[in-house]
Amino acid sequence: MLRYTIRRLIQLVGVVLVLSLLLFAWLRALPGGPVSALLGERSTPESREALTKQLGLDQPIFVQYVKFLGRALSGDFGVSTGVQPGDSALDIFLQRFPATIELSALAILIAVAVGIPLGYMAAKRRGGWFDNISVGGSLLGVAVPVFFLAYVLKDVLSSALGLPTEGRQDAINATRVTGFFVLDGVLTQEWDAALNALEHLILPAVALATIPFAVVFRITRAAVLDVLDEDFVRTAESKGLTAPTIRRRHVLRNAMLPVVTTIGLQTGALLAGAVLTEKVFSFAGVGQALAIGFERRDYPVLLLLIIMATIVYVVVNLLVDLSYALIDPRIRTR
Amino acid sequence: MVTPTRKKDRIDSLAGSSADAGVSLAASAWRTLRRSPVFLTGATIISLFVLVSLLSPWLAPHDPSDPMLIDQVVKARNQIPPVQDGHPLGGDLQGRDFFSRLLIGSQQTLIVGVLATLIGLAGGLTLGTLAGAFGGWVDSVVMRLVDVMLSLPSLLLAFSISAMFARPNQYTVIVAVAVVQIPVFARLLRGSMLAQRHSDHVLAATALGVKPGAIVFRHMLPNSLGPVIVQSTLVLATAIIDAAALSFLGLGNPDDRIPEWGQMLGDVQNVFDTHPQLAFWPAGCIIVVALGFTLMGETLREALDPKSRR
């Protein structure tokens, strides 16, 4: 187990190095390069040359890359040019990351809380109207562009439910502890602040949840169908176990492995979906920073955030693999 | 729990797949699909979509880039041309006939979907075949490359590729949407090729002295086509939706004289609350077409995979 974890972590370092080199080369290959990106339209030849020297861009690319890595190791990823001009890219990431974690966590929670029971019930009533409707609904969920759904929720549902549609929290006096607004409210026992932050999370999280929901539902349904056919379920039935016991101990437990894998793989889609939903709801997370970064071509911020997204994605999937051992004892003893 | 008929079906299909997979599996898949209402719904939607997009230059009553109703656009009062005689859906923000734009848009949408899928397929086919057919260090190099691509969330990769281009246009959108599909196709083909490398029919062909190239193209590739066709159908749906997301982030084609549905939807984000119809029509079209491709793909997957038949 430990050796496996270490090997995967070393692979991750390799992926991040290759990716950062590619992104770095991309940054350099841009028309005009970072100098134009930094100075914009108002540059004179002298100022361009000065900045080129100052940034060390007159040196060979590998020298530049090694220097970049050196700076990166000390936490210096450059300065934002478009998202929050003047701020350091790392600060922007650290400031916004908790917001996206809160949003994605709630989205996954919604997807799992609705998707697993629904998938189980659909499998039990395979071929019936309940099954057909929920399968149809999950296919429709895949076909709807997330940002369109987000706008529909924002413009139609928000007024009906009285939920806020902009930002992470109203301008109220809330104490900041961790940067997770809901958690902060709970820790400081400022309940209204926690509730307010939670209300701001609901609509974007519901929109975002449609991505993992469709997949969680369908994988659960397929996995439960597989397990229901197994001999041990028939044995459990014939020895007279109650339905809830069979469901919990025999069906769901065995069906969960593929579902957990799927949840891990969905974090990637979730990160990309966060770019779209956070933009619609002006939600100050990493996704919004990426959306603005793409729009204003803020390369230092894009570079850092894309690398971070990759690391998060790979680490989550590693954790998922490790969690197999908890679900399936057969893997533990191997 | 297992009824005899189902068990029989399963054995039949398994036998069919190992004997002469190509013909009998395809034939049995077609028998299933022909009677599947879900598949037929999807196929009808897609046939209509393709027909409309091919005929759209003749179906569209007006030039989609002609601002013929511009005098009815009042910027100050946020007014756009209403529904009227000859303009069944009114006009858009630039006073162009909205119905014609939707019709012509179907053509561009089809082009984006098909080209993106073909490019992704061609790239994945090349990499996957190389890796799976030759194995060894070729496999290692190709698959590490694929792994790096897969370690980035795919839509995020599409966003990043688009941002590489200083001036996005229709083709940069297609390339961005296509490139992210390459690793998926590559993995799919490699797996299938690897599984066949030591199978009996390849061994027999090798023993008969068939050239390696002929083995790969005549014996291995045709056997891998099933999952590739399924994946292509599903990618057609994702490509259209992803293209819309690119436009929404300002990474799409800024030239809207010849419209595309994703672009039409992404471009109206600022007027969503005042003129929702400008978003609802292209969104509705995208949803219906994406659903059509998905229905076809999912039923194809079930029909072509002997194991998923239950």
TrEMBL record, chain A:
User: What is the membrane topology listed in the Swiss-Prot or TrEMBL record?
Assistant: Multi-pass membrane protein
The compartments listed are: Cell membrane
Entry superkingdom: Bacteria
Q: Check the record and name the PROSITE patterns matching this protein.
A: ABC_TM1
CDD domains on file = TM_PBP2
Q: Which UniProt keywords apply?
A: Cell membrane, Membrane, Transmembrane, Transmembrane helix, Transport
| Signal peptide (UniProt feature, chain positions) | none
GO terms in the biological process aspect are:
transmembrane transport
List all membrane-crossing ranges.
103-123, 135-153, 201-219, 255-276, 301-327
SUPFAM superfamilies assigned to the protein according to its UniProt record, in alphabetical order: MetI-like
Cellular component GO terms, alphabetical: plasma membrane
Domain named ABC transmembrane type-1: residues: 97-320
The record, for PANTHER family, names:
DIPEPTIDE TRANSPORT SYSTEM PERMEASE PROTEIN DPPB-RELATED
Family as reported in the entry's similarity comment: Belongs to the binding-protein-dependent transport system permease family.
Q: What is this protein called?
A: Peptide/nickel transport system permease protein
> What organism, scientifically named, is this protein from?
Saccharothrix carnea
From TrEMBL, chain B:
ABC transmembrane type-1 domain location, by residue?
Answer: 106-297
What cellular-component terms does GO give this entry?
A: plasma membrane
| Highest taxon of source | Bacteria
Entry keywords, A to Z: Cell membrane, Membrane, Transmembrane, Transmembrane helix, Transport
Q: Name one Pfam family in it.
A: OppC_N
Any one biological process term the GO annotation gives: transmembrane transport
According to the record, the segments passing through the membrane are: 38-59, 110-138, 145-165, 171-189, 228-251, 279-300
Where mainly found? Answer: membrane
Q: Which CDD domains match?
A: TM_PBP2
Please give the name of this protein.
Peptide/nickel transport system permease protein
Record's bilayer topology term: Multi-pass membrane protein
Cellular location(s) = Cell membrane
The UniProt entry's sequence similarity note says: Belongs to the binding-protein-dependent transport system permease family.
